[in-house]
Amino acid sequence: xxxxxxxxxxxxxxxxxxxxxELQTHFQKQYSVVGFIDDDQTKAGQSIHKVPILGPIKDLAxxxxxxxxxxxxxxxxxxEGETVRRIFEASRxxxxx
Length: 97
Description:
With about 100 residues, the chain is of the alpha/beta class. Helices cover about 30% and strands about 25% of the residues. The chain contains three helices and five strands. A five-stranded mixed β-sheet has the order 3-4-2-1-5, with helices on both faces. β1, α1 and β2 form a beta-alpha-beta unit.
């Protein structure tokens, strides 16, 4: 059996929670959710179903390296182009999908 891909979910709101549930319910053999990334400082340090909310998008590269992340899922339905660009820029250079 191959190792599960370590991933981060960007967005710790309702969509992020629902996405985590779907991954844990239907894709637990493929993915291991390491944590959430969210710019809401009031969420930092909390967890959702035992998955920690690590910190803001600006620190995304640090978490990718620290946890050897292989993939990032964006769970922000209302994300504007600027937010998606910030996520892309923060993860640039890392080998993530």
